[in-house]
């Protein structure tokens, strides 16, 4: 290795990802899109990197002044930003534009107008109260591009070889470096994302020092990472590897049901039967006991979670009874005289996802239902869900902000795909409770409505709640200032290298 290449490697933070489809903020759909977007651009407000519980801090805007009726927000740009109020207005209105379809359009549905008062001041007026509105301004959808679309964030796009790698180079003019304790001197000069779909391959690359970060530990490698006491294996600790996390994440994994599907959509007892047939104890063993049970649409880590018992957790006897009441005794479809056949769409056809799909199929075989697996590339999978061309689909929702509303809005009828309501769920009673929650002035009042929303979803079963992940991350010892974060997009700006 030459001196130049060694120096280049030392100043580069490398991680494996699945893919980045876009760096256009309003089109960012996957978590990896969001990672890339928030390296290039800043948002009006930010989630504090170090604060727990999570809180909002200024981004390119100061924290807003909020009117007494909570309908008008007045923002001032921070003095150090080159961006103006006009840039923010242009971005938010682009996100609001129905002629510019965006998966983040839902974030601006309650915005009535954005008005520039001067270059450094603007107001946002809401149609109705929305207590989470400031949190939405921390999201990648709201990232602000310069007047010509240029990046003004901590990094600039250096190169992009689709489906192979994307490289970002540090922007020396970014205002945030001067505000950091070390003036940004020890920040990574480059951030490199390389596309590696298989987690086992990612693991081997991590062991070789080819990547600095592992955000997911493959099931087959669990024993090589954790000892019998649940601590980092000594061989890795000796190399300086850091293990972070272990707490339940602000995220839920689920099997979504297309409520427009003629078989699933109008048959609540069938959906309930499928939920009862999901064998969480076996599923947990499959994941090396590294997951938590999900008993509803909101994780227990989130403000507004309701700890009510779930009536349709694993119970084979109940599953068979409900299946018969749904019109499919012993799993037989009376229309065909054969086993009821359902189709599950899965993105990323890895060995792990195939084994998970086969395990799910075995659960439903117990009640006489045949589950067919259809694997797609990630991009094709998301398109199929967005267009409603699926019956069942395996997906996760990672919180955008720490409030129950962020999960419950996945069931609001006005958020149907291409918005976040991928199940195309519609229930007037749910919508009414959700809207009352948005209008509530206090957390106590909101949580009454959030609890009722969760009761409705638990009963209707538009999802099969599979699990809540526990965040375990492995980080190369040369990476400093890393913290586990439920909202990690663009957080590489905070990392420091000991190699400089």
What layout of secondary structure does this protein have?
Elements: H1 3-10, E1 12-17, H2 31-40, E2 45-47, E3 56-58, E4 65-66, E5 72-76, H3 85-96, E6 111-118, E7 121-126, H4 133-136, E8 155-161, E9 165-170, H5 175-179, E10 190-195, H6 199-207, E11 213-214, H7 222-225, H8 234-237, E12 242-248, E13 251-257, H9 268-276, H10 280-286, E14 291-292, H11 316-325, E15 332-333, E16 338-339, E17 341-347, H12 351-365, E18 370-376, H13 378-387, E19 392-398, H14 405-408, H15 428-439, H16 443-460, E20 463-475, E21 479-480, E22 496-497
Parallel strand pairs: 1-10, 17-18, 17-19
Antiparallel strand pairs: 2-3, 4-5, 5-7, 6-7, 8-9, 9-10, 11-20, 12-20, 13-19, 13-20, 14-20, 15-16, 21-22
Summarize it.
Helices cover 28% and strands 22% of the residues.
Structure description:
This protein has helices at 3-10, 31-40, 85-96, 133-136, 175-179, 199-207, 222-225, 234-237, 268-276, 280-286, 316-325, 351-365, 378-387, 405-408, 428-439, 443-460; strands at residues 12-17, 45-47, 56-58, 65-66, 72-76, 111-118, 121-126, 155-161, 165-170, 190-195, 213-214, 242-248, 251-257, 291-292, 332-333, 338-339, 341-347, 370-376, 392-398, 463-475, 479-480, 496-497. The chain has 500 residues and is α+β, with helices and mostly antiparallel strands. The protein folds into 3 domains: 3-19 and 152-248 and 476-497, D-Maltodextrin-Binding Protein, domain 2, CATH 3.40.190; 42-142, Alpha-Beta Complex (Dipeptide-binding Protein, domain 1), CATH 3.90.76.10; 251-470, Roll (Dipeptide-binding Protein, domain 3), CATH 3.10.105. The strands form 6 sheets. Strands 11, 12, 13, 14, 17, 18, 19 and 20 form an 8-stranded mixed sheet that branches. A 4-stranded mixed sheet has the order 1-10-9-8. The mean pLDDT is 93.
